[in-house]
Amino acid sequence: MPSDPRSILTDVFGHTDFQGLQAEVIGHVLSGGHAVVLSPTGSGKSLCFQVPALALPGLTIVLSPLIALMKDQVDALRARGVAATFINSSLDRTAREARSREVAEGKVKLLYVTPERFRKEAFREVMETVKATQGISLLAVDEAHCISQWGHDFRPDYSRVGEWRTWLGNPTTIALTATATPAVQDDILRQLGLDRTHDAVRQFNRGIDRPNLSLDLVETWSDDDKLDAIEACARRLPGSGIVYFTLIKTLERFSDLLAERGLPHLCYHGKLDARRRRQVQDAFMHGTAPGDELVLATNAFGMGIDKASIRTITHAEIPGSVESYYQEIGRSGRDGKPALCTLLYDERDLLTQMDFIRWTNPDADYYERVYHHLAHDREAIRSFGLDWLRERLHDRRRGHDGRLDTALAMLERHGVIEAEQHELPRGLYQLVGQLPPSLRESERLTEKLEADQLRLYDMVEYAKHEGNRKVFLNRYFGCG
């Protein structure tokens, strides 16, 4: 394996030259400098840590929240002869232990893990062995906006990355994202324990413009308007397309209406079982049957999609933030050819997003109540499931309420609860920790709620912007 960056680029990855800021970032990292890299989706951010990983002597740890992407990236690296692996919850115990031994024995150059893995004692023991033998040369934090509670996709375990970084011996660190405002970029540095005024710390901002993406907005007033627009977008450019919806029930309704119009398509959402979701993803990636090239999906679809030829992205409902919107349209046109990104704007859809914001921001009292029931009503929950718990937490007159799903997810991420057995129905949890201060501080939770509301307001401002929408996006992300 070559050790010179340019030789690695050519011999391992098959590229003739670096693009954009890649060479500058890689040179800075190889000199021991820390970096925050803001660069568009599809611009080759991964090479900014993969090339140094092969040039440096020790192990490179790649933190990523996306389990779905780890296997694809590792498979691609291994196909190029790179000693890469991942350890996450998708593996059984035997596989995790086998891969851990390979890491401890120095047989791995790039290790992909989620931040949650650092909570496991067995994993920390492996890292102790690595620190004492080969050393940890580089820590790469992918999707780094997840570190910041002001980002659009905050993950609690990401907030402990600074702690884990210190424990690892403060290795050279590179944080990468396509979607971070200036405030979020500053928070990433702060959370990592890096001083932006220090010479060894640099922020690289390539900008966010993707010249091949055309950004359009169509104002709609009815379902028929939306159907016409969705059909027009799907037929405007030949190739694959994604139509994003917020609510599953809306997606299913539009699927029926489009089928009546004779527009073949696939559907992807959380109500489908894992096997069907995989089938839909595989059909979209490789299928040849009518309808395989168009998928109606909730926003989770795309996280594991690395398809260069997506020609259209249509948002049937307004997203909750500019960051989410930009991340989702960034999945189109990765081959550099023209792609059309269309937002269908209906002010009625704002009510849906306002509900989502309320559901994803339970207050401190709600967390206390959930924790109390989990602690004192375990047998009732085991017997009657989450519906029993919802009846005690929610006012039926207010209709659907998604706060319990958010609260349980947050308690799991904070290590407060664990599912008793993966094969049992969701809701059978055991308490393993105390309610953390961050979920008991009313002021902090209110601040987060207000930040989410402001992000939705910014999205509305984007929709109403009468000038060049790319100018708006560049200004929003501090690139113009």
Question: Can I get a quick summary?
Answer:
This protein is of the alpha/beta class and 480 residues long. Helix content is 44%, strand content 15%.
Number of strands: 15
Total number of distinct structural domains: 3
Biggest sheet descriptor = 7 strands, parallel
Q: Can you say what the CATH homologous superfamily of the largest domain is?
A: P-loop containing nucleotide triphosphate hydrolases
CATH topology of the largest domain: Rossmann fold
The share of residues in helices is 40-55%
SS class: alpha/beta
Spatial strand order of the main sheet: 3-4-2-5-6-1-7
Roughly what fraction of the amino acids lie in strands? 15-25%
What is the count of DSSP helices, taking H or I runs of 4+ residues?
18
Rounded average pLDDT: 88
Explained architecture:
This protein has 480 residues and is of the alpha/beta class. It folds into three domains: 5-205, P-loop containing nucleotide triphosphate hydrolases (Rossmann fold, 3-Layer(aba) Sandwich), CATH 3.40.50.300; 213-346, P-loop containing nucleotide triphosphate hydrolases (Rossmann fold), CATH 3.40.50; 356-440. It has helices spanning 5-11, 22-30, 47-55, 67-79, 93-104, 121-132, 161-167, 182-192, 223-236, 248-260, 274-286, 322-329, 349-359, 364-376, 378-393, 403-413, 442-464, 469-476, and strands at residues 34-38, 59-63, 84-87, 110-113, 136-141, 172-177, 201-205, 213-219, 240-244, 266-268, 294-297, 310-315, 339-345, 417-419, 429-431. α11 links the parallel β10 and β11 (294-297). α2 (22-30) packs parallel to α3, α13 (349-359) packs antiparallel against α17 and α14 runs antiparallel to α15 (378-393). It starts with a helix and ends with a helix. The mean pLDDT is 88.
